[in-house]
Amino acid sequence: MKRFFAWLLILVCLCTMVPQALADDKPAPIPVLSPEEITPTPKGIHHYMLICIDSWAADLKKSGNHTDGMILVTVDEYAERVMLTSFIRDMLIQRPDGDFGRLNNILDNSGRENGGIEALVATLSTHFNLEIEKYIVVDFRQVENIINAIGGVDIEITAREANYLRNYPLSASSTTPALSGGGTYHFTGHAAVIYMRIRKVANIDGETQDVGRTRRARTVLTTIADSLKDITYDEAVALLNVVLENTVTTNMTTAEIMDALDLAMRMKGTEIESIRMPLDGTYEPMPVANMATQQIDFITNRKALREFLVDPFVVVEDE
Question: What's the pTM?
Fold first, then answer.
């Protein structure tokens, strides 16, 4: 009988502890910077935010828009560096209205204060200590069209990725040669978009979910850049027109776009460097309001991102 009551007491204690543990499972405060606290971008460094909407036919006038891919392209014209920074879409952030939320939900302005593209860019800036001013927004169909315009991309995939893609309704002509297993294939635009969206299958580096997706997106962008290293100025202008025809929106003026083109021509052939936010070991799962999110150590990641983008090279101009 004593043993029975002992086990009963243990069971009662465990049952009373569980709700307390769940109650304590709350997000830590997020150290968001004010716009005035953001470190100014050093001269010669240019940030361009590439945002892909989770849709094949995006319409910003409608509700329900979410971001699928977010990559910051940074060009340092003095150090002659081109850098890609990708952000996982399920990171836990502080929304512009002050509440917690997922990064990819900021774009949807239905029922929220300060939603939309500007709010998304501002959120990335205040969470990662960045002065992001220029952005280009596309959807899946537009990414497909742009990749087709350059003639497709060569991508190395694993056997599991090949099996996943074979089970997806892709036409036999989507890759050259036809998918048969692990290896390098030439992807059309549609197949490349489907490849970048793979979540449940590990990529060639063994990464899954949103982390794996960000790697695939950086891989495709890097491959595109490599394929354009010998592009002529006239060809670049033609490609730029394709990009502009396949853009949901941008805040760049015609003059700024031409400046970016000139900068790209000067930097063509430069080896692409890349980083993912957050770094390995600096985040953990944190379910919030029935959403699967990742709680980030923003202090550590801000420091790492600054060191990656700026600190390796400091150029001081003579007065």
Answer: 0.86
